[in-house]
Amino acid sequence: MGTRTAAVLMTAALLTAACGAQGDGPAGALPTWPSAPAAASAPETVPAALRFTARTLDGKDFKGESLAGKHVVFWFWAPWCGNCWDEAPAVRANAAKFGDVAFIGVAGLDTEAAMKDFVQRTKTGTIVQLSDDKGVVWTKLGVTEQSTFVFMRPDGSTRRASGPLTTEELTGYVTATLAG
User: Fold this and answer.
1) CA-based, 20 to 30 A from 76: which of 14, 32, 82, 126?
2) Alpha-carbon distance 117 to 85, whole Å?
3) Angle ∠(7,36,145) on CA atoms, nearest 5
4) How confident is the model at residue 22 (pLDDT cuts 50, 70, 90)?
């Protein structure tokens, strides 16, 4: 399937997904971590999920591989998503609290002007914000709805949760990501 076709299919799936459908289990329940990805014949230093390039909302190039070996929280949002607006304070608070974790906002499903307005009005410009208008990063990390969080450990293992998440719930997920 071509890149353009994949992007169109991903956009269609995202547009039909509910804004903030429930995540991996009952509210407050943290799913268990999957085992680390199986080792390839040669050790990989960059997980496949981080092999992407994107552009930040302030126009800079961003390489996913720059996150290799780090704890990462990806926040997938859209400017028109009410749940995304509601959880912006939780994202800001946790990004400030966990300075050793890379928080990456991944915006999509709207214009860049709307994305920039969202970041300004929610005061989430202190974290890296990617403009993913073609759905490349959404597709790479298997995200089909907003708001979704993908938590990644340095070994490349991930788990996800759909929002909205409160400050305390997001703190629980980040703490669990750091443990183990």
Assistant:
1) 32
2) 12
3) 30
4) very low
